[in-house]
Amino acid sequence: MSKPAARPPRRPPAAVVLGTREERLAEPQPPRAARIAAYALFFLLGVAVSICGSFVQALWPPAGVLLALAATAATFYGGLRVTGTRLGAGMPVAGWFLAMLLLIVPRPEGDNVLWSNATSLAWLFAGSVLGVICATLPTRTSWFPGVPGPPR
User: Fold this and answer.
1) SS3 7
2) Beta carbons of 67 and 60 less than 8 angstroms apart
3) CA nearest to 142, candidates 134, 152, 133, 150
4) What angle do CA 49, 67, 121 make, to 5 degrees?
5) What is the three-class DSSP state of 141?
6) pLDDT at 122 over 70
């Protein structure tokens, strides 16, 4: 009788979805022109996610906050993975914050998009934390954001 084939070690769910640190660091760096285009695209995507998330979190509390935060985390992490740089996560964060600043300011008529209630504050705080987390994850670059490291 033959021995049953050994199973590969079981990977945690996060490693299946996100990959291990070694797998992420071994990915090839995109060309400079593609990274620059991706930075601009992710900045605009950060603005769009901020605006849409601000309305979704107010429309369907509390599930709307979770939905908006999931879209925010996906945008921030997507920028990091597509470009392979911390600036790739920082550009959607910058767009997100810019749109949030504009949405927090009340209009002359007294209308607000974001109020000082629990869901709006959770949206603002948790989105900020997600931005910081994604911008500090390991990347394929050197210490300076946006500059690729030496070839491996």
Assistant:
1) coil
2) yes
3) 150
4) 75
5) strand
6) yes
